[in-house]
Amino acid sequence: MTETRQKTNVIGAIFPVLAKDASNLFEGSRDTFVKFTNFSLPDGSRIVFYVSCQKLLVGEGRVRHVAKLDPADAWTRYKGRLQLDREDYDKYARFSPVSKEPRKLKMITVIELDNLRRYRKPVRAFSSMTPSGHYLTKEQLAAIRNAK
Prior knowledge:
Order of helices and strands: HEHEEEHHEEH
Shape: globular
CATH topology: Archaeosine Trna-guanine Transglycosylase, Chain: A, domain 4
Helix content: 25-40%
């Protein structure tokens, strides 16, 4: 598939989360996901959540709004709506959970979501996932939804 064709099929992203953070999004009143990323996600994109330790796709949401903010400003504005609790957020904002090194990116991506839904039956990931996630195509989303 050509690079141009792949880009036109991109409709969102698959991002890794911890199981407890996925629960915060799907079982509570939290509707905002934060990640240090350079991914470009326009409003209306889809995000599928991948629980890393279980290798399962557990649910999805639609991007309502994306903002790049200083981590302190992001916490002040969205604290009760984030998938992370304060202690986890503070650690995540300062250090990479993968390398344990101080953050290189200074701005955090804040993704407000709607239409959040947990899959009744989680879907086994169809490929290996990186900590940064990867773009989601129309075909991948259709395969995920058909596998449930």
